[in-house]
Amino acid sequence: MAASDSRNNRADEPGFVVQPKGEHRVIIVWLHDKDERSSDSLQFVEQLNLKNVKWICPSLVFPDSFIKGVGGLGMGAAVALHFATSCALNHYTINPRVVVGISGWLSNSGSLKRSIESASHGAPARAASQSIFITHGICDSVPHPCDCGEEAVLSLREAGFRDVKFTPFARFGPTAHENNRNVMVKSWLEEKLQLDVTIP
């Protein structure tokens, strides 16, 4: 979606992609502040006029009726879990309903309980309202062993995140373990969000 097309977007759309005007050599994801919109990001990156850069400007602004969630794999899982705990601590105005972490870890596990207990603005209630699903390959060593998933679950539960599920998955070769993992994540999301069940 080019920037020229995206100016007509509604406020609840997910953001803008600004295509490079010259040879495409760089991709930058530009994040706006919590009180701004992706249109503010768009205005900024267009003023820079960098012809070789493709800009991705996601939006944080969605209607209250939308259920928010975050998830990721590996490093993406670590970022998702860190973001979820930061939301519980009221560092952001949103609080995800569902969180998925695949083969990741919790970077602030050692201090999370203390942070939740000492935080103001209803941090325990925000933590308790999140549903978190963590899964990890039993024999995974990259990026971190399965113990990191179990450690994350323990830290989250001790900190007051009440709805945390951990399910390890066995590795029987790339295709088999991916299918196993995908089925678990899909089933959990369908259950938590009451989604329309899709038949493979």
Automatic annotation (TrEMBL):
Descriptive protein name: Alpha/beta-Hydrolases superfamily protein
Species, as recorded: Arabidopsis thaliana
